[in-house]
Design brief:
By secondary structure, the protein is α+β, with helices and mostly antiparallel strands. Helices cover about 25% and strands about 30% of the residues. The radius of gyration is 16 Å and the shape is globular.
């Protein structure tokens, strides 16, 4: 189950498990079922020239994750990926994004799908200041990720390296 929390005065505070379950079952799931039957998002496994992977930490979770977000109506997948990289990390693609796989993410949200792209080279002269959505950014060696890196990041990196079979589900 995804972790829910709040960032107050720059410090992340997770909600108690019962509150996170209540938010998920009584707010997020009903809204998703009524408003959006199917959702589509993109995430980027983006490497710098040193082979380090770009990760971001969002204000609503304590875990480091790949940058990415939702695809807007009428927007191409690759276009959404480029937009999200720019918005979240001020990163520009120096190599074209390659679609690696499309995963279901039904445990988090019914009807949710994630398109995962690999970008062999991104350039980021400076990260944007922390904001309401993204509170931290960084390039990390795939062999030395932060302790609080999401499990999905570890799994996707193993799949890309050929060290694990490609899963159908995101988490």
């Amino acid at each position: 189950m995804p972790e829910f929390g709040l960032t107050i005065r720059g410090r992340y505070r997770p909600l108690p498990r019962w509150a996170a379950l209540a938010v998920r079952w009584f707010v997020l799931l009903p809204i998703a079922r009524i408003a959006r039957g199917t959702t589509l998002g993109v995430q980027a496994v983006a490497y710098d020239d040193n082979g380090h992977v770009l990760l971001v930490r969002q204000s609503y979770t304590a875990k480091w994750q790949f940058p990415g977000g939702g695809v807007d109506r009428g927007e191409a997948l690759a276009g959404a990926l480029v937009r999200e990289l720019k918005e979240e990390a001020n990163a520009d693609c120096s190599a074209p994004p390659r679609l690696f796989g499309v995963y279901t993410n039904f445990r988090s949200m019914p009807g949710d799908h994630v398109a995962l792209f690999v970008v062999d080279r991104v350039r980021c002269d400076s990260f944007p200041p922390p904001n309401r959505e993204i509170v931290a950014h960084g390039f990390f060696s795939p062999d030395a990720l932060p302790d609080n890196t999401a499990g999905s990041v570890h799994r996707r990196l193993a799949e890309i390296a050929g060290n694990a079979p490609i899963a159908k589900e995101w988490p």
